Description:
The chain is an alpha+beta fold and about 170 residues long.
Amino acid sequence: MDVRQRILGRPQISSDGFSPYVDAIEQAFGSEVDYGQIVKVYAGEPGPDTARRYSPGVVVDVRKAVIAGGPDRKKISTSFVERSNLTIRMQCRRLTRLTNAFSKKLENHAAAVALFVSHYNLCRVHESLRVTPAMALGVADHIWTIGELIDAATADQPPAPRMRPFAVIQGGRD
Length: 174
């Protein structure tokens, strides 16, 4: 429901075959969604050695299914979210399995994740974008320093965005 409140318009959503997603998406979006699933079929069990203990078998088939609406079948994919999950697990050790870097309190966990997401979007220049994601979206006009991020995180009120005013075009449209 939280995601629904943050999305404008009719989204296309893709998921894996985890069955609770179907009801959750239907409850949150009703008929205002294009929803597809991608299910990977694996063959063979991983070997008993430690290196393969947490690895799935070999993918032998990939099946795409339209669950609701009319999603573009070519865009039914979990690759973007899987890449995002990998990035956050590698950068925020609290989300890595089998480590002692976990949070004992939910409040600390939420703060650590929020700090990571803020740094990733406001302070870190991304190689493919050559700017921060916030700058690419037009919600920031500069690369934030760590000091600015900490000041914003510890302030009573969030800072007002520092944006350059839009250029005023004289005359009619081009």
